Amino acid sequence: MRTTRLAAAAVAAWGLATAASACDLHAPNAAKAGAGCARAWMDANLHLNDILVVGTHNSYHAGLSDKVMGLVKFAAPKQWQGLDYVHGPLADQLNDGARALELDLASDPAGGRFAHPAGAKLAGIPDDPAYVAEMSKPGLKVLHIQDIDYRSVCNTFISCLTIIRDWSRAHPDHVPILITMNTNDEKTHVPGGVDELPFDTAAYDEVDREIAQVFSRDELITPDGVRGSYATLREAVLQHGWPTLGASRGKFLFALDEEGPHITAYRAGRKTLEGRILFVNVDENQPDSAYLTLNEHAEDARIAADVKLGFVVRTRADADTVEARSNDTARRDDALKSGAQYVSTDYMRPDTRLSGYQARLPDGAIAVCNPQRAPERCAGIPIEP
Predict the structure, then answer these.
(1) In this prediction, what percent of the chain has a pLDDT beyond 90?
(2) Is the pTM of this model over 0.70?
């Protein structure tokens, strides 16, 4: 499988190189590079942080069963609406144009910790033998809230990553995909439930190990690769920049969307993420700063400034089903203008129970030039149609 993919990529690269030889890669924009040359021009002149794409929030979220949702409505009548959204299989999301995904992780080194959700038991839902078997395997699990909001389109980190990798290898020309992760270590909210385990350095080592088990190094954009010979990741991003679009196609960058003690545990004494796979969400002045999660609508001005400097930013077009229930597109529209390279939504397709609200790029494009980083360079041509 891997040999076939490399051979196909080599053939494709040779074809692009041959085509590029007849293209003006020094043209001022993609439209002036010559007939059929827009792709070659973009790959040579744009960088990873020059894109704008839309992806999904909590991409694994399969929704609560009706019986468990009934319990939640009774126990939390003001909060249940925020859990009332559903995503389809990861491959379907990627086929639909999602170029950012989010996976929430729970540590389970012995296996079986989350195999028997207390909420299901309270709701009278019998155990599913297939679910119990999968959740009994040692390793990281993917879920939102243990015992309550536990249903996922893929239950283990390994299975989620394998689906994503297999899709990527079948579509090697995709723009770089961001995968963000929250690492859950909360107390249970359900009598008889289980607390999540702390995310210490050992748990974060397992995150890196499982990613490396599924993806080869040449499929990943890592802090070491971006830093290169610079002293810090921040210095590399601000002075040298991110890899070119051509060097980033078919690849992934992973980001830890956490703060405080979680970041400290993941760093494990490293100054600038040496040897680590994940980028971390830290403020712009830290030596390992390169990526930021800035989800709030009020942060649009900060997003624009950071993107112009060279940082990669993820923001949200909507949250907690609020915009979908009111069909309010203001936050979405501002997010798409803000410059955040990765805009996350629960509604790449409308939930017709609520409204016609959705968050997508115009004209069905998957990736376009970033609005804060010289959008005229693409001359209105999509980066990934």
Answers:
(1) 93
(2) yes
